[in-house]
Amino acid sequence: METTLEDPTLERHFKGHKDVITSVDFNPNLKQLASGSLDSCVMVWNFKPKMRAYRFVGHKDGVTSVQFSPSGHLLASASRDKTVRVWIPSVKGESTVFKAHTSTVRSVDFSDDGQNLLTASDDKSVKVWTLHRQKFLFSLIGHQNWVRSARFSPDSRIIVSGSDDKSVKLWDKASKQTIHSFSDLGSVIHQVAFHPSGTCVAAACCDCSVRVWDIRMNKLLQKYQAHIGAVNSLSFHPSGNFMVTASNDATLKILDLLEGRLFYTLHGHQVGVTCTAFSRQGNYFASGGADEQVMVWKTNFDSVDYSTVLSTHREQQRGEVPPPTLHDIQPRSPLRGSLAAPLPGKKASQELIEIIEQRDLPPQLTTVLEQVVGQLDILTQTVAIQEQRLTMVENKLKEALDNQAASSCSQEST
């Protein structure tokens, strides 16, 4: 498998909004980028050359959040006008309206199957809706102040929300009950997000920090103080190894989550950066700012050529390349908690390769399976690397203890 480690590059920038950009999101087909702004408009930028952008007008106040459905056929937007609109992202810009809350709607999110909508509002509530007939399902009540952000877990069984009451809450969608609350954080929460694995959540905080919790143990894993201004937005890379953050300090930061360190600092916006998001494939990310500009960046780092992964797997099956020993290293101990799932191994990815080769599958399904194989490969190697790092730490600790014991013995003998 080949990977490249290069600096992110600014590929394009779009101008058309007349006020602060509040939200950006890529269409899963990577042919469009949506943005919302306090100018009350939703813009859909087309990447196809010479194809004009669509400006959707319908909200009566600032747009606070935009998101494409998993299929890319719908686009949802939340607004200060207390409504959510669901648009068809075409030139006509047709939409249906959800009279969602009694105050500003701060965020909107689709479930993994695209059937449900999740909204968060200044009325202190989080609500779940069904797209069919725009039907309200239920509310989640528990926050004591504005709820700025709410997101489904990757499997949509759990909901995370962040609020001005300085807490992050986890909810069980089935029982509609709070699972856990990370309270007394000392900072307003601007945005929350689930790690692609579904085992961690992150929060962008007003106190310039980014925090990551393991929701299996309800434990703070990492806290980053990389910015010197409030952190407004964050997005996980699909690999789960990186995160991009946007701040009032006019920078974007790329964080290396495996190493727990700052990876890149990006300067593009002239003033505060208000939102950011990776594409579903991770090869691009976008940002929006108070300078009314939308920028598209090419990731470059940690990019994976899935066709290379596939060809490598095929060569391994033919015996031309010896299988990497890292794939055979298993986790030291099973993951704890109900969210834990067994890691896919080499056998599972080989079976996918056989399916792809033996059956005449539609091109779209073939592409999806190729991406799954690539993610399996990344996942097994990541686990193996972590295992090696843990072993190194244990060896160093043992060496230090042995040296300390030897030193104590020599002092006693003298």
User: Taking Cα atoms only, what radius of gyration do you get, to the nearest Å?
Assistant: 23 Å
Query: Could you give the distance between the termini?
Result: 57 Å
Main sheet characteristics = 4 strands, antiparallel
Q: What structural category characterises the helix and strand content? A: alpha+beta
**Beta-strand share of residues:** 35-45%
| Number of discrete helical segments | 3
Q: Compute the average pLDDT.
A: 84
The rough form would be described as: globular
Parts with pLDDT < 50 across at least 5 consecutive residues: 304-314, 321-347
Instruction: Specify the helix fraction band.
Output: 10-25%
As laid out across the biggest beta sheet, the strand order is: 2-29-28-27
Extended strand count: 30
How would you describe what is shown here?
- This protein has 414 residues and is α+β, with helices and mostly antiparallel strands.
- Helix content is 19%, strand content 41%.
- It is built from three helices and 30 strands.
- The chain has helices at residues 306-318, 346-358, 363-413, and strands at 3-4, 9-15, 21-26, 32-37, 41-46, 54-57, 63-68, 75-79, 83-87, 95-99, 105-110, 116-121, 125-130, 135-141, 147-152, 158-163, 168-172, 177-182, 189-194, 200-205, 210-214, 219-224, 231-236, 242-247, 251-256, 261-267, 273-278, 284-289, 293-298, 303-304.
- The strands form eight sheets. A four-stranded antiparallel beta sheet has the order 2-29-28-27, with no helix packed on it.
- A hairpin with a 6-residue loop joins strand 7 (63-68) and strand 8 (75-79).
- The radius of gyration is 23 Å and the shape is globular.
- The model is unreliable at 304-314 and 321-347 (pLDDT under 50).
